Amino acid sequence: MPELVFYDGVGRAVAYTEDGVHIFGFSGAPLAYIDGDSVYAFSGAHLGWYAGGWIRDHAGACVYFTEGALGGPVRPVTKVNPIKRIQRILPIKAVQRIKPIRHVDKLTWSSILQFDE
Q1: CA 5, 14, 2 angle in degrees (round to 5)?
Q2: 66-70, long-range: CB < 8 A, 24+ apart
Q3: In Å, what is the CA distance from 48 to each residue of 59, 83, 101, 105?
Q4: Spatial distance between the Cα atoms of 60 and 83, rounded to a whole number of angstroms
Q5: Upper half-sphere CA count for residue 20 (Cβ side, 13 Å)
Q6: Residue 6 parent element (H or E)
Q7: What is the rounded distance in angstroms from the CA atom of residue 96 to the CA atom of residue 37?
Q8: pTM above 0.90, yes or no
């Protein structure tokens, strides 16, 4: 799978995945991982949904997008990606918490879900 870069609602590159599973910040910090259509923190917390190139919050609003994202709200012009630092070691994945019921996808931007470095 080619590298995917995740952009926020203003077009800033905030994270990337090289394997389609593990999401890293450009600082090299492991932020989250994708399991099926879900995004989880390494603590086991369900962060949101991933489908069609979008990461959405629990209400269905858009948080991050990739270059090939389909549908969704109007995307901003993307900015130059920062330089990637060396990836840190992945933490052990905790037991996944039960994911919530998925809401209908919205055409709006969210400010709820943000990756923490």
Answers
A1: 15
A2: 66/4, 66/5, 66/6, 66/7, 67/4, 67/5
A3: 9, 26, 11, 12
A4: 30
A5: 7
A6: strand 4-7
A7: 13
A8: yes
- Radius of gyration (Cα) for the chain, nearest Å? 13
In contact, 40 and 25? CB cutoff 8 Å? no
Which of 59, 102, 76 minimizes the C-alpha distance to 11? 76
pLDDT digit of tens for each residue in the chain (117 aa)?
A: 679 999 999 999 999 999 999 999 999 999 999 999 999 999 999 999 999 999 999 999 999 999 999 999 999 999 999 999 999 999 999 999 999 999 999 999 997 767 776
